Amino acid sequence: MTGNRRTNDPQAVRRRIVDAAYDAFVAQGYLATGMMELREKASVSGGAMAHHFPAKRELGLAVIRDRVADAVRQTWIEPLQACADAPTAIDLIFENIISDLSRKGSVSGCPLNNMAMEVSPHDEEMREALSGVFTGWHDALSAKFQADVDLKRAIGIDPGSLATLVVAAYSGAMAIAKASQEVRPLRDCRQELAALLASKYALAG
Amino acid sequence: MTGNRRTNDPQAVRRRIVDAAYDAFVAQGYLATGMMELREKASVSGGAMAHHFPAKRELGLAVIRDRVADAVRQTWIEPLQACADAPTAIDLIFENIISDLSRKGSVSGCPLNNMAMEVSPHDEEMREALSGVFTGWHDALSAKFQADVDLKRAIGIDPGSLATLVVAAYSGAMAIAKASQEVRPLRDCRQELAALLASKYALAG
DNA sequence: ATTAAAACAGGACAATCGACCTGTTTGGAG
DNA sequence: CTCCAAACAGGTCGATTGTCCTGTTTTAAT
Asked: Where on strand D do bases come within 7 A of a protein Cβ?
């Protein structure tokens, strides 16, 4: 009698769930977000949820691999490869983040950092997945520094450790910004990193 | 009949609870630690727990104000004031942390950062307390840089933003170290920060 | 000694968590 | 068309969460 026909679209359902989970995990954290809450936000029944993600940790893994990794790729790796050299890319990335946060008003922090802090002690597989995202980020940055060295744009650089410093400074600045709800830490780090890189790139050229 | 006499020692009981809570919060996180678990670790009855900390958030606030703030003071602020200048202090602090972690084997992360990431979105009062600890840390570092400038040990320095970079680099390096379970990120940041500060301090003197 | 408040014991409470169950519907392979 | 697995609906389950309650003991002030 109820003429409503159901149309199965597993990919879309799964995407809705992962999207809602990503938003909630970033905004409130992994543990603080309940499965019931995600069902409502994604408009998904308990059966569908259990079918796609039998356990919460599998949803967490999906969020890390599908969304967190992509967020890092979009905001860091791609701009890095699109710009001429590392310093201009880094400065542009910081500028984008700062203006985004200034527009939004509140600081919810770095998605990767947020999940890594909370989840790492409890689940080895998720920890390794998060570590892999960090590694990919670091390696892309390190490769760009190395390319700049090869092109004689910079000298006296240790690409690996310098990349670590940039990643750490960004993550840490985001953490402070989240705790203080201010953009100031990001501006400070942008300024200091720009000055540091400028001195290393000035010698060449 | 039971001749066992009880001796009230509220300060010691409270200290046992806060100590157990600090350890657990740092190791597994605030949300992942249950009140029941803390009662057992501190050997405290439900009544005593409720008497000293009617709600979990008050215990969280006590941990932040009594233990986290003190941890930052011990590992950062005091060495900073004891050393001659900022660069040697920072390098010494990193060395201490690195050898501690190498000895311990596992990396549980920066206590301040751990709590800040997890708790900030949920509780405004705890967020402000954590932000205050960050501010105290930053200000002590900034004051040391300023002192070095006044003593003509360094020139061309912006104490405020440089302090932010150091705090962010340390927090971020700890985060990466926690996610990857390696000390490498800390070694990298130590090396880069030492080089950066050396160049700024070389011009003077 | 009396008394009131602080300190503590032990258990109960509703609420919520994540996981799971049985049944129904859809959609593609044969 | 037949058939079966995938996709989905809706509800239930035990366990655990944080909080609170009643009663008892200790402590200190008067």
From this structure: 6-12, 16-23, 25-27
CA–CA gap between residue A198 and residue A192 (Å, rounded): 10
* Chain B residues in contact with A141 (beta carbon < 8 A): none
Please tell me the number of Cα atoms within 13 Å of B75 on its side-chain side.
18
Closest CA to B175 of A31, A168, A41: A168
Could you tell me the CA-to-CA distances from A200 to A176, A203, B160, B180, B192 in Å, in that order?
27, 6, 22, 28, 12
pLDDT in tens, chain A (205 residues): 444 677 888 999 999 999 999 999 999 999 999 999 999 999 999 999 999 999 999 999 999 999 999 999 999 999 999 999 999 999 999 999 999 999 999 999 999 999 999 999 999 999 999 999 999 999 999 999 999 999 999 999 999 999 999 999 999 999 999 999 999 999 999 999 999 999 999 876 5
Closest chain B residue by Cα to residue A30: B118
Q: 3-state secondary structure string, B165-201?
A: HHHHHHHHHHHHHHHHCCCHHHHHHHHHHHHHHHHHH
Rounded CA-CA distance A49/A59 in Å is 10
Of the candidates A28, A138, A161, the beta carbon closest to that of B192 is on A161
Residues of A in contact with B117 (CB under 8 A): 109, 113-114, 117-118, 175, 178
Give me the CA B129–C1' D20 separation in Å, rounded: 27
CA dist B121 and B87 (Å) reads 34
